[in-house]
Amino acid sequence: MVVSNANIACAVFGASGYSGAELVRLLNQHPNFNVSAVFSSSAGSAKPLAELYPQYQFPGHLILQPWHSDLLPQLVQQVRVVFLALPHEASTELVPELLAANSELTIFDLSGAFRLQDETAHAQAYGFDQPKLAQPVPYGLAEWCQLQGNEPVVAVPGCYPTVAALALKPLLPLLSEQSTPIINAVSGVSGAGRKASLTTHFCEVSLQAYGVGTHRHTPEIAQSLQRPVVFTPHLGNFPRGIVATIYAQTNADVSLADINHAYQQAYTDAPLVRLRNQPPAINDVANTPFCDIYAHLSGTQLILCAAIDNLLKGAAAQAVQLANLYFAKPASRGLLPEPAPASGGQHE
Ligand SMILES: NC(=O)C1=CN([C@@H]2O[C@H](COP(=O)(O)OP(=O)(O)OC[C@H]3O[C@@H](n4cnc5c(N)ncnc54)[C@H](OP(=O)(O)O)[C@@H]3O)[C@@H](O)[C@H]2O)C=CC1
Ligand SMILES: CC(=O)N[C@@H](CCC(=O)OP(=O)(O)O)C(=O)O
């Protein structure tokens, strides 16, 4: 298969879902990627993706195909990269099938199928075993992972773990060893996906904690930070975005200047993380690829406020950011406007 670096052919599974549709939108406007196949589940019939999401003005050639394994041999010849925005179980089945059909594919998996490195923690959190792959799957918290560009599969982090880890990771050396960070986060209903259920029905949702003490993102955040955390998600009555309020104790000699310095050090070259002078609102980040972070310190009591769009920095935009890193492109390509090339040249 010949692959032009300027036009890397991609398939998006789960394109009829919320994060899949965002992925297609982002890839479609990206100078280096080209969406050549989009799939829904096997239910239903083929239809233009534009019919499902008129607001995105998808081009007419993007026809949503119900996925069937008969399509596999042709697909793996046609594309270089596959994005999976599928339920965890569906990714678990599909990843080994795709790699068996073409070991040169690169798969960015938005589900939780490969995020946890500990098999027992995975089985406990998801209720099924993780498939064994020939190579380890890197956990792709984009600002903190280094991709070599030869990994067959990259696990895209969950939405809550993304916002929690981006806020806490730079500060870990400053936290008291006895401190267990407490993360309270509120998500909009798109976090639960497009399929309606009673608990996510707009008329039913007000503001409520869920998964208290049991949410599968608790071990994911703990893995990312390498320390235990208390995490409580809440569902709020707005469409998209997450605001997280995080509490931790610092060491005795830590100042707010130390906190801000640690953030500056970590995120100087991170165009998608914005350090804020006030707590970020959902409206500041909804429909953007940013993670906004604010810190307050009283004595040793640290309070962090952080926000992302769950479907973008928490899913599709982070996946595109990882694909950029994988193919040695600027992290924010296709996500933020780039200055025009000086001499009328083109992006490589
Ligand atoms: N929503 C969010 O904020 C975030 C979601 N994620 C993860 O991304 C993934 C997708 O989530 P989301 O966009 O919310 O989900 P949606 O429920 O909105 O969409 C799911 C998609 O998967 C398709 N699908 C379902 N079952 C199968 C199957 N067996 N084979 C092939 N396709 C299938 C659906 O097709 P059809 O339309 O035909 O049913 C649909 O396109 C999940 O793993 C989720 O955990 C990660 C971070 C944030
Ligand atoms: C509001 C809501 O329901 N949110 C989802 C999280 C979505 C996400 O990022 O998580 P995964 O990719 O791990 O599924 C939940 O709590 O299950």
From TrEMBL:
This is N-acetyl-gamma-glutamyl-phosphate reductase. Pfam families: Semialdhyde_dh, Semialdhyde_dhC_1. Gene3D superfamilies: Dihydrodipicolinate Reductase, domain 2 (3.30.360.10), NAD(P)-binding Rossmann-like Domain (3.40.50.720). Catalyzes the NADPH-dependent reduction of N-acetyl-5-glutamyl phosphate to yield N-acetyl-L-glutamate 5-semialdehyde. PANTHER family: N-ACETYL-GAMMA-GLUTAMYL-PHOSPHATE REDUCTASE, CHLOROPLASTIC-RELATED (PTHR32338:SF10), N-ACETYL-GAMMA-GLUTAMYL-PHOSPHATE REDUCTASE, CHLOROPLASTIC-RELATED-RELATED (PTHR32338). Belongs to the NAGSA dehydrogenase family. Type 1 subfamily. Its EC number is 1.2.1.38. Residues 9-150 form the Semialdehyde dehydrogenase NAD-binding domain. It catalyses: N-acetyl-L-glutamate 5-semialdehyde + phosphate + NADP(+) = N-acetyl-L-glutamyl 5-phosphate + NADPH + H(+). The keyword NADP applies. Pathway: Amino-acid biosynthesis; L-arginine biosynthesis; N(2)-acetyl-L-ornithine from L-glutamate: step 3/4. InterPro entries: AGPR (IPR050085), AGPR_AS (IPR023013), AGPR_dimerisation_dom (IPR058924), AGPR_type-1 (IPR000706), NAD(P)-bd_dom_sf (IPR036291), Semialdehyde_DH_NAD-bd (IPR000534). The gene is argC. One of its GO terms (molecular function) is N-acetyl-gamma-glutamyl-phosphate reductase activity. One of its GO terms (biological process) is L-arginine biosynthetic process. It is found in: Cytoplasm.
